[in-house]
Design a protein that fits this description.
Blueprint: E1 4-7, H1 35-40, H2 55-70, H3 85-120, H4 140-150, H5 154-175, H6 178-185, H7 197-200, H8 208-220, H9 222-225, H10 231-256, H11 266-279, E2 284-287, H12 290-294, E3 298-299, H13 300-317, H14 324-344, H15 350-365
Parallel strand pairs: 1-2
Antiparallel strand pairs: 2-3
EC number: 3.4.21.105
Subcellular location: Membrane
GO molecular function, one term: hydrolase activity
Length: 366
């Protein structure tokens, strides 16, 4: 049966992982220089951050002033090369490994907890579709929101929580000092950015539209993806996809000599989209607003092919506004996982679960 899901239109499709205009905000060192001045040589004058205006305006003004002052300079040192990416590859493998091992242990604990509750109830099963009678609450709207949340499936609850984390990080940009947010929540292959930014940047958005569009598309695909991934597997999948997309982004930046960091969840969102489209190639997709107004739709298989072509072309040609390498990384990871990765990793989780079970039994005996 053909299903219809809503997408954002044109360049806003899945809100690409937008490249931040901040480049490198000045960060004070012990010598009194900023991080930017230190990396570029002592002859470069210090940069001052604009004090007023919105975050986007300040970042744009700072980037323009920095670019103007860099013109004609020949003593700019390279921030990184391909040898520096070894640590990024190791970190990506570490995140992917720990994510799936942790998800397998989490899955074991959930099964053990469910088994324990089943024994305590004398073998009586509890069906999630049957609602228990609750006394009326004086907080009508709040109670309805709680009921809506509790009625969600496990995977959709997890996705709702991921959206809440993204909104929380968005608010942090308004209150936390910028040098800290730039270091940990924007991804770039430089010493000025923490290695953990490869995963933290997946939950980071500066613009309101960027956040809203990414979360809208993620929520739109929460229904189809829950048919193929459990909540534990989805969390490992999402974290791994975000880190892999950051790795490809860093590789592309080093190859092209780009110093501009990027942020956003669209790498991981693209992986969710690719996984859903691969498993449901005949389902129907539509463009938000336009598709509903003109009754226009297309197959998910066609959308997947189109995205692969566009993102590959954008990376090879060097379109600068979006981080096409991160998008392509998310698409390829989603396709690889549903085609091969699920059988190679998640479907063999019994080995990890048995090891964890033996450890638990040994600890109880001691």
């Amino acid at each position: 049966m053909a299903l219809s899901y809503s997408l954002l239109c044109a360049r806003q499709l899945l809100t690409p992982r937008s490249i931040s205009l901040s480049a490198f905000l000045p960060r004070k060192r012990s010598c009194g220089q900023t991080m930017l001045c230190h990396c570029m040589g002592k002859n470069v004058q210090h940069f001052e951050l604009p004090r007023y205006g919105t975050i986007q305006t300040q970042l744009r003004n700072f980037y323009k002033s920095t670019r103007q002052q860099l013109r004609g300079k020949t003593n700019v040192e390279k921030y990184s090369d391909f040898t520096s990416l070894f640590s990024h590859v190791r970190f990506t493998c570490l995140v992917c490994g720990l994510s799936f091992v942790g998800a397998m242990i989490w899955n074991y604990e959930n099964i053990a907890r469910h088994h324990k509750r089943l024994i305590e109830r004398g073998g009586i099963l509890e069906f999630p579709g049957i609602k228990k009678h609750k006394p009326p609450s004086s907080f009508g709207l709040f109670s309805k929101l709680i009921d809506q949340y509790t009625s969600l499936t496990a995977v959709r609850k997890l996705i709702f929580n991921i959206i809440a984390v993204n909104c929380g990080v968005f608010l942090l940009w308004k209150v936390v000092p910028w040098h800290m947010m730039m270091r940990y929540f924007q991804c770039a292959p430089t010493k000025a950015h923490s290695m953990t930014s490869m995963i933290f940047s997946t939950f980071s958005h500066v613009g309101t539209f960027h956040l809203a569009a990414n979360m809208y598309v993620l929520w739109s695909f929460s229904k189809p993806i829950q048919m193929f991934l459990s909540k534990e597997e989805f969390l490992a999948f999402f974290l791994s996809a975000g880190t892999v997309s950051s790795l490809l982004s860093c590789m592309n930046k080093v190859k092209r000599g780009l110093l501009i960091p990027s942020l956003g969840a669209s790498g991981a969102v693209y992986a969710v989209l690719a996984a859903s489209c691969y498993m449901m190639p005949d389902s129907r997709l539509t463009l938000a607003v336009i598709g509903e107004a003109f009754d226009f739709s297309f197959s998910s298989k066609s959308a997947l092919y189109a995205l692969l072509v566009v993102e590959t072309a954008g990376m090879l040609i060097g379109w600068k506004y979006f981080d096409h390498a991160a998008h392509l990384g998310g698409l390829l990871f989603g396709l690889w996982y549903m085609r091969y990765g699920q059988n190679l990793i998640w479907n063999k989780r019994q080995h990890v679960m048995k090891f964890w079970h033996d450890m638990r039994q040994a600890s109880k005996k001691n």
